[in-house]
Amino acid sequence: MSDEPIRVVLVDDHPVYREGLSALLSSIDGVEVVGTAADGQDAIDVVAHHEPDVVVMDVQMPRLDGIAATREIVGRSPHIGVLVLTMSEDDETVFSAMRAGARGYLLKGAGQDEILRSIRSVAGGEAVFGRALARRVAEFFSAGPSSRPVADVFPQLTAREREILDLLAAGRSNPQIAQALFLSPKTVRNNVSNIFAKLHVADRAEAIIRARDAGLGHL
Q1: Which of 12, 112, 169, 191 fits as disulfide partner to 18, beta carbons 3.0 to 4.6 Å?
Q2: pTM score > 0.70 for this model?
Q3: Is residue 110 left, alpha or beta, with left meaning phi > 0 and alpha meaning psi from -120 to 50?
Q4: Whole-angstrom Cα distance, residue 113 to residue 129?
Q5: Tens of pLDDT along 70-89?
Q6: Is residue 45 located within the same domain as residue 129?
Q7: Residues 92 and 180 in one domain
Q8: What is the pLDDT of residue 148?
Q9: In 3-state terms, what secondary structure has residue 59?
Q10: Are residues 42 and 99 in the same domain?
């Protein structure tokens, strides 16, 4: 890595925690906090403006949650590393963050040294997960095809269509899918119609059954 400081954007809807972490990181040589945001929607704009090396992202936030914001940020700028820092430790949240493109996942009980090490590692392109989550993450990656979705499920679908089908199978409505993927409702409707045609299914219920049988829908 270069001698330039690691440029960081902090995203958290709790101002005391956000400002405290900002003050802490700003006091450390080699780290520069270039922006903060109070929700996922603001995060997308702040990140686009500052182009940081790392985004430290909470999950539970108003307007747009951290998972959807991570997906949008990584989709636009794959070189930016997202480190999730949250209270949520359930498998659904952890794996949703990973699938959205997060490079790291820490719980808010992590100490200063662990947070700093994780920011540096994510900035260097590494994947980092806190000690409490390491075993579950390893099991996830070592699981067989029957345990988690694989890239060749429904090869006739585009990556975007497969992503939408995954959310369909998880029980999400079209407006919820549009919000999660930062798409217009019309785009989601068009993709859903394409999915039905390509899978030769008559309706949403049949598509969900096909998807769940293939292992999708476990976000």
Answers
A1: 12
A2: no
A3: beta
A4: 14
A5: 999 998 998 999 999 998 87
A6: yes
A7: no
A8: 47
A9: coil
A10: yes
